[in-house]
Amino acid sequence: MSRPKGKHNGQDTARKIKTVARQQMEKYGTAGLTLRGIAKEMGITAPAIYNYYPRLEDLITALIVDAFNALAEAMHAAAVETSHSSYAARIQAIVGAYRQWAVENPVDFQLIYGNPIPGYSAPAELTTPLARKPFIELMQVYVEAMNTGALHIPTEYQDLPDSVAQYIDGWGQRVGTPIPAPLFGQIISGWGRIHGLVMLELTHHIQPVIGDPAAFYSYEVNAYLQRLELLSPK
Amino acid sequence: MSRPKGKHNGQDTARKIKTVARQQMEKYGTAGLTLRGIAKEMGITAPAIYNYYPRLEDLITALIVDAFNALAEAMHAAAVETSHSSYAARIQAIVGAYRQWAVENPVDFQLIYGNPIPGYSAPAELTTPLARKPFIELMQVYVEAMNTGALHIPTEYQDLPDSVAQYIDGWGQRVGTPIPAPLFGQIISGWGRIHGLVMLELTHHIQPVIGDPAAFYSYEVNAYLQRLELLSPK
DNA sequence: TATCGTAAATAAACACCGTTTATATAAGGG
DNA sequence: CCCTTATATAAACGGTGTTTATTTACGATA
Hints:
The structure is a homodimer.
Chain A: H1 9-28, H2 35-42, H3 56-81, H4 87-104, H5 106-113, H6 124-132, H7 136-147, H8 162-175, H9 181-202, H10 207-210, H11 213-227
The first copy, chain A, binds a DNA duplex through loops.
């Protein structure tokens, strides 16, 4: 048989290829992603995949897009679950989802934030908007917290470099919802912190040093929120 | 000719293989590292390399070891250059060397802290001691600054989780030079911050967001040092 | 209903890759 | 002078992504 039963079966096949690809990566690591392996698992031949993804790169790009959306979905779920909680609880939940999703889906996280297939880099015009998606709600919490006066930017973070402030103001106006540059700097600082800890955890660099990455992560987030006066010392 | 001229020429060849390997990675990315490519560049055949590195993994391991030492050397140089400066200046220099080396040698940095060749992971018993090497002098500066009373651990960082504190005390005693757990937590927090920013810069995730990664990096480090009261607000 | 266009699969081949095997060569020591 | 040993090679194996030409069978059209 050559043509499948259904009508729009082509899309189903494309989706199944992605599914199998992700399974293969989970099983055999990022290196285990081979067209022939996917094909054998699906009971077809490797060149057949070219009907759906002209190149291996295109398949990887599709996987990256899915990974971005999955991460965004995980953080979104955390946001809605705590939508009626305190600012601190909401940020803790969203930022906790960031790490948890990374730990549970290390391959997909590396796909987004690592060097998944060296020599390949996802098209920026596609990933740049996707990269912002997971953080939309998180930034809204920050803005809300600042507008109500709950969030105080620490003195040491108040003078953002001019080059950065101008850049932020620039695309803040472009997007339409401008964010105060110092607040934005504070957000990026927070992003850098949690991202660093997550990356060091995924590459097994921090575990031998501090023993309990999860506990340290909470400790760091709590300290951060305390400094913003969103959380009081226990 | 089969055997080269010199006596210990085998080591020279092994070193040259590493050099060419690094050149190939710089040229064609981490994916461009192929035994056949190295061999062709050197005017020999691929199997000849097996006389020096039984497997490709062994070559990569050697490259990682070199990378660790190079990073340590860069940070060491920064430390000695500022050995008579203030604590803040010394930390700024060492931590600045961390980023600068990463930016100038992105492939080597990925070799250490990334997923260089998927499916391969460096032997932990070899890399764990090496991983500490770059930070030895940095930690000494912290300890010195704390002993003289110049460094103050912020309130929000004072209660380290028990699991982490116990772990740190455990291997602090093992190594011989115990470090106060809260100080250590503070150091790791700093490491996480700079590492996160560097990783986000290398994967091109932060540049489209803040425009000037170098400036933001200094901003973050300064804020960190101010919070430790090692630097006064300008 | 017969025919045609097309989507989707295949087989075969190409140029790579890491790796193994067996073999050849030449330097250095007894 | 011979023999050990280090070092190189050629050839082959199984694997990879990718291209090409060909076949198959569905869906619509006349």
